[in-house]
């Protein structure tokens, strides 16, 4: 088993196919989308492939040590293509192919018009400790 | 296996051990170990005298720990000094424990954790689960808290207001894992109300009961947030509401108003209305006026503005909002709501979307997104 991080972006990722902002959907479409995400996580729990998932607020700041006193805080080092992460899910799966399969499925969450959003998800393997036994 | 009985006995047993000469931290540790043993042993072999059992086992645990620390000779001295008369007034001791756990030298998070363990009798694992942190993290938080109060004298008088603040925090944490913190906060506040005559303790108890009574209606089956106006009032717990109102009336009759009584009065007016239209908004505004006078809390002012919007119309509500700091939590959502009531759907939709982006929890964000979506759909016709 290997763990993968599925990263969902607010922006910064390539535009999805069904690119309509959420507040322009109907309330039913919003509910259907949330329901899809919830059922996806619940199903992975039942297959033993779910590790954790969290949603992030779009508001964030960059902070660094700035000597004595208050640290400098900025809205971000990026001028225009500011990337924002909306949330993540960590899965623990048998293979890289399975991770891709699940990411694709998550990307098919319904959006405006009840059609899949086709949003891009970033898939990153989690680094782990070296195995005790190498076969 | 009566877990609530165990939890009720916890503060008493800790107090007894302290009376016998154990310091607070050691007594608390010993009682925790006794509780764990009780959970293991009681289902097969329930004791006739649960309190006596716990005192005996906890004292033995304390002695074991003391023996590990000191010489055999010291242990024998401790055993020698064991005979103890039953204390006359345990209620006072329990109250001291509340004050100790809410000591001002503790951070709010530590005070909450220590209260749940020492007064509530929850295990570290249960508290960790409720706060979604690893058990080791919570264990550290609790032992740090115990170290902080280790030099505080057990009989030092405490501040009721601080204790109430801690209980209020526990209530607001809601629930997760296998412990419902709201129910736990109510249990602790009931216990405190039984041992002290303070009218704000009654005010807080009434407030909790009235809010807890409406909880089944507050979320839909799919976990979505249901605003007060749309709640199915048949789901409200009328027994809890009646009790909350009784407790509140007894507190108000003593004519020493405080912020918890005022908040409970507002909650009671909501709980009293059989339909949303029956809500007595004029009286609610009057109570908010009292609350603002008592606390000068900006959140109370924000809530008051929304109530004014219901009592005197959305324009009046918006005028009241305009006096406040726009960076207040939920300011944008409240403004959106009043604009919608005023018929300005475009502004309301824009503000709902803005409020959704700033929301700090998921159900609220989803709710606000749906509100924006609903108005935008209406605007498209």
Automatic annotation (TrEMBL), chain A:
Pfam families listed in its UniProt record? YCII
Task: Give all residue intervals belonging to the YCII-related domain.
Answer: 15-108
Q: Which Gene3D superfamilies match?
A: Dimeric alpha+beta barrel
Similarity remark: Belongs to the YciI family.
Protein name, please? YCII-related domain-containing protein
Specify the species: Nonomuraea gerenzanensis
TrEMBL record, chain B:
Q: Which residues form the DUF6596 domain?
A: 161-251
What the entry lists under InterPro entries is as follows: DUF6596, RNA_pol_sigma70_r2, RNA_pol_sigma70_r4_t2, RNA_pol_sigma_r2, RNA_pol_sigma_r3/r4-like, WH-like_DNA-bd_sf
The Swiss-Prot or TrEMBL record describes its family as follows: Belongs to the sigma-70 factor family. ECF subfamily.
Every RNA polymerase sigma-70 region domain range: 6-69
> Source organism's superkingdom?
Bacteria
User: Which GO molecular-function terms appear in the entry?
Assistant: DNA binding; sigma factor activity
Biological processes, Gene Ontology terms: DNA-templated transcription initiation
Any idea where the RNA polymerase sigma factor 70 region 4 type domain is?
98-148
SUPFAM superfamilies hit by this protein = Sigma2 domain of RNA polymerase sigma factors (SSF88946), Sigma3 and sigma4 domains of RNA polymerase sigma factors (SSF88659)
Please report the name of this protein according to its UniProt entry. Answer: Putative RNA polymerase sigma factor
Give the UniProt keywords, A-Z.
Answer: Sigma factor, Transcription, Transcription regulation
